[in-house]
Design a protein that fits this description.
This protein is elongated. It starts with a helix and ends in a 9-residue tail after the last strand. Helix 5 packs parallel to helix 6. The chain has eight helices and nine strands. Among the domains are: 40 residues; 81 residues, Alpha-Beta Plaits, CATH 3.30.70.260.
Length: 284
C-alpha cells in the first residue's frame, strides 16, 4: 500500500470512530433522562474508574496508556455534561495553584469551573448544589481548620463524601505542580474492587501513632496513610486516615472499635473513599 492508501484507511477508521461517538451520545442522553427522572447524580466516579480499568486491561500496542486514559476522561466529561447541569467547584487561592489543572485533566477542558478562594467555599458550593463536585487539597492548608472536620459536620444534613482522589493518571507535564486533591460530592462512594476508605478518628486523650495503627490492626484494618492530625481545644485529638479497602460506617469491625475503648475513642466515622488511581507502572 502507498501513502495515499494508508491515509484513506485512516480516514475510514476516523469515520467509524465518529459514528460510534454519535451512537454513544444517543445512549448517554437516554441515561441522562433516566437519571433525571430518578433524581440520580450525573457523575458516577466508581463506574468511570471501572470503565478506565477495563480499557487499560484490554489495551495493547505502542499507543500510550496515559494518553488513552486522558482521551477517555475528556470524552466522558463531555458526555457527563450532556446528561445535565455539571459544574466543578475548585479550590484556587491564586493562579497556578494547580487544582484547576487537576480538575480540567479529570473532567474535561470545557467543564464549567467555579473558582473558590477558600476550601469552605468549595464545600458550600457542593452542599448547596451550585456544583456537582468539589476539588479540595489532600493536605491541609497551614493554620486552617481541617476541611475534613467540616465535611464530617456537613454529612449530617447533606451526605457529602469524598468520592475520588485526583489525578487519576497523573497531571500533564508542567501542570499541577505534583499536587493531589480529593473530589467531594453529595453521594456515597461506591466499591470498585480496588479502593481506599477515609476515616476520621477523634480521641479524648492523646494517643501515639503506633497505638493508633495497632488499634486498627487488631480488627485487620490496615492504616495506609495518616493524612492529617489536629489538636482540638480541651486535649481532644483528631486524625484523618486512609485505610486499605472499602469500608462503610456500618462495618462491624468499626462497631467493635467504637465500643472497645470508650475512654479514648470519642468518634470514628467514614467520610468517603476513592478508587485507587493508576500507578505509573500500570500506564506503561
Amino acid at each position: 500500500m502507498n501513502l495515499d492508501d494508508l491515509r484513506n484507511e485512516i480516514d475510514k477508521i476516523d469515520e467509524q470512530i465518529h459514528d460510534l461517538i454519535m451512537k454513544r451520545e444517543n445512549i448517554v442522553i437516554k441515561v441522562g433522562k433516566y437519571k433525571k427522572d430518578n433524581s440520580l447524580p450525573v457523575f458516577h466516579p466508581a463506574r468511570q474508574m471501572k470503565i478506565l480499568r477495563k480499557i487499560i486491561a484490554r489495551h495493547n500496542g505502542e499507543f500510550s496508556k496515559e494518553v488513552l486514559v486522558r482521551l477517555w476522561l475528556e470524552m466522558m466529561g463531555a458526555f457527563i455534561r450532556l446528561q445535565g447541569n455539571f459544574k466543578v467547584a475548585v479550590y484556587m487561592p491564586k493562579r497556578g495553584a494547580g487544582y484547576i489543572e487537576i480538575a480540567r485533566d479529570t473532567f474535561g477542558a470545557y467543564t464549567p469551573i467555579i473558582d473558590c478562594g477558600l476550601i469552605g467555599e468549595v464545600i458550600d458550593n457542593v452542599k448547596n448544589n451550585a456544583a456537582s463536585v468539589g476539588i479540595i487539597p489532600v493536605t491541609r492548608i497551614e493554620n486552617d481548620t481541617p476541611w475534613w472536620l467540616g465535611l464530617l459536620a456537613s454529612r449530617k444534613d447533606n451526605d457529602l463524601h469524598v468520592v475520588a482522589k485526583l489525578p487519576i493518571s497523573g497531571v500533564g507535564e508542567g501542570r499541577g505542580e505534583g499536587k493531589e486533591a480529593y473530589a467531594i460530592a453529595k453521594m456515597p462512594y461506591e466499591k470498585t474492587g480496588k479502593d481506599i476508605s477515609l476515616l476520621v478518628l477523634e480521641t479524648m486523650e492523646p494517643i501515639s501513632i503506633s497505638y493508633l495503627k495497632s488499634f486498627f490492626e487488631e480488627e485487620k484494618i490496615k492504616v495506609k496513610n495518616i493524612i492529617d492530625k489536629y489538636y482540638i481545644p480541651n486535649s481532644t485529638q483528631a486524625f484523618l486516615l486512609e485505610v486499605s479497602g472499602y469500608i462503610e460506617n456500618s462495618d462491624e469491625r468499626l462497631d467493635k472499635m467504637r465500643t472497645k475503648n470508650p475512654k479514648k475513642l470519642n468518634l470514628l466515622n467514614v467520610i468517603g473513599g476513592y478508587p485507587i488511581p493508576f500507578s505509573a507502572k500500570e500506564l506503561k
